[in-house]
Amino acid sequence: MKIFVDTADMEEIQEANEMGVLDGVTTNPTHISKQTGSFDDIIKEICEEVSGPVSAEVVATDFEGMMVEARHNASLANNVVVKIPITLDGLKAIKQCSDEGIKTNVTLCFSANQAMLAAKAGATYISPFMGRLDDVGHDGLDLIHQIRQIYDNYAFETEILGASLRSPKHVLDCALAGADVVTLPLDVLTKLLNHPLTDIGLERFLNDWKEWEAKQNGVPA
Ligand code: G3P
Q1: Is residue 210 among the annotated active site residues?
Q2: Domains of the chain by range and CATH?
Q3: Residue 31 Cα to ligand 1 middle (Å)
Q4: Pick from 163, 118, 128: which is nearest to 24 by CA?
Q5: Helix, strand, coil percentages, rounded to 5, for the chain
Q6: Is 69 in the pocket of ligand 1 (CB under 6 A)?
Q7: Relative to the CA of 132, which ligand 1 atom is closest?
Q8: What is the pLDDT of residues 100-150, one digit of tens each?
Q9: Report field, pTM of the whole predicted structure over 0.70
Q10: 132 lines ligand 1 (CB under 6 A)
């Protein structure tokens, strides 16, 4: 499973990249709004730091406007993936991008039928929002299972990108359900590594080692 980090903050992206397991980045208008500088410069800087796919979202809501932004965003760097919301105009833009060879990440997906249409239109990635579904009392994991089943039934090549993930449990659920990618805030990525028994075990090993070393040197414990 590929791991993307879900942020436009360069320090967070660099920290995630230094972990050595980062495959890409997803941004959205909310992430961009927290940064300073122009949209183009922010996306270009991220694309220089990370060689994998970097999602850059359109903000136009009409087909023509989406296509102007899609072509522009795709021109910023070779690894840009254009993020497009799953609306009627969005669907048309996904198809047009696919015809033009522009990679897409279809965002704000909350149903399996939306995911099916995105795949038929040639989306590169579909982003089901697990956390936001859980927030309103639905089960985000059900959606991942449904999309996996539909994509496998019909051999759709669109990759399932679990988004809006809030916890290590969400990540585990996505991995077990066969998601192709997860995109995570840096703190969730860091939490994947943590386990209290690892810390306790390491402390015990190091203490035992110190005692043994002291004994070798004839120092009474
Ligand atoms: O980038 C899309 C998605 O990951 C947003 O997550 O936490 O705002 O629901 P969240």
Answers
A1: no
A2: 2-194 (3.20.20.70)
A3: 9
A4: 163
A5: 55, 15, 30
A6: no
A7: 9
A8: 999 999 999 999 999 999 999 999 999 999 999 999 999 999 999 999 999
A9: yes
A10: yes
